[in-house]
Write a structure and sequence with these properties.
homodimer, mainly alpha, Arc Repressor Mutant, subunit A, 2 domains, 9 helices, elongated, DNA-binding
Chain lengths: ~190, ~190
DNA sequence: CCAGTGATGTCATTGTGTGACATCAGTATA
DNA sequence: TATACTGATGTCACACAATGACATCACTGG
């Protein structure tokens, strides 16, 4: 057995999500998270740059999945088709079993402005990565930005629907519907 | 003459923008801003909830202008047309004389992640307001969100182009071009 | 002339975030 | 086996952001 309990990082994540749900994000101090995880504040900040970041470090993996999907789309696919493929590939993140977790996390984020800010910049980073991948496929500079950002808009709205209590549909279907709606709306 | 120098708020804004430009956002302390403005940190936080907020409190006015434009668009205008009117109405913010200021402010924001976060949430708030106004015009619930968010994407990209050194065109023309591009991209 | 108002200042406190240094089990190396 | 090394954690000290409580005092209206 090692000198310390394993999985410090996931213990931090679990403790944080619990406390945020129990007493709210602002009321939760880093010291409290660390105590519940059996560690110290100082150690918390070695794993996460930020108090907020403890809720967001799955995002690199999501980004990688989506960029891969986009890159591997058929080379004759249109920009819109490539983006659609990327959005749908994110579905592996959104399996039914993870819905309760996603719901809790999502409600914590929506309840706090600081956390929404962080979420938005993660989405912006994702959009940049997708735009970059589109350019690598030969898309025009500003077309790439526009398409990627618009794609992320659809992604966010679809995700919110998927995670909402009332919604029953599966993620891929919601994405396709949203894309279709956007098409209608932008058409003259 | 009043007991204090007038325009405390704009003195804070000016001092902050100067210092951010001179030594960077992170290196600038609130105490330093206050000192340059001839006031106290405590007073700074009476005007601005945040250190960041000192760069962002024009946004309510922008929002009001755009929502007004959207609301006053002809009642038979399509969702897309109403959004276009709102985007173009923002042009009163972006007159040629203000470009140097906008450029400095923009470069300060782009250089710092915290500030980019704040900018993004201001844009998100703006998008919500536009969506709300669209619903008031009778637009479908999710159509309103999609159209407003997509509109803000165009707005952000157009603004970035307008503010960039190389670009020469005027704001309204850039918006129209970007909208046209988005239309082409989303079409099947 | 006086009470009240409001913008500012002073002081104290909590929490975030970070640098510098200490500890010490496990591992590699002589 | 002894010794040095590594790396995850802890301890301590500190700067800065943010906020509550209370003090100050020019100006205003009666």
């Amino acid at each position: 057995m090692g000198r310390w309990e394993p999985d410090a990082e996931s213990r931090f994540r679990a403790a944080a999500l619990e406390l945020f749900g129990e007493i709210g994000y602002e009321q939760t101090t880093v010291a409290a998270i660390a105590e519940r995880a059996g560690l110290t504040s100082r150690t918390f900040f070695r794993y996460f740059t930020d108090k907020r970041e403890v809720l967001f470090n799955g995002s690199e993996r999501l980004q990688q999945i989506m960029v891969n999907a986009l890159t591997q789309a058929p080379s004759d696919a249109s920009v819109a088709e490539a983006i659609e493929a990327a959005l749908i590939s994110a579905g592996s993140f959104f399996e039914e079993a993870l819905r309760p977790f996603a719901r809790l996390r999502s409600s914590v984020i929506l309840a706090n402005t600081e956390l929404r800010e962080r979420e938005l910049i993660k989405m912006a980073t994702l959009a940049s990565a997708l735009a970059q991948a589109l350019r690598a496929r030969g898309a025009d500079e500003s077309d790439a930005s526009l398409a990627a950002e618009a794609g992320i808009v659809v992604f966010r709205i679809a995700f919110l629907q998927w995670v909402s209590e009332s919604e029953q549909g599966d993620y891929a279907q919601i994405v396709k519907d949203s894309l279709a709606r956007l098409r209608v709306l932008t058409a003259r």
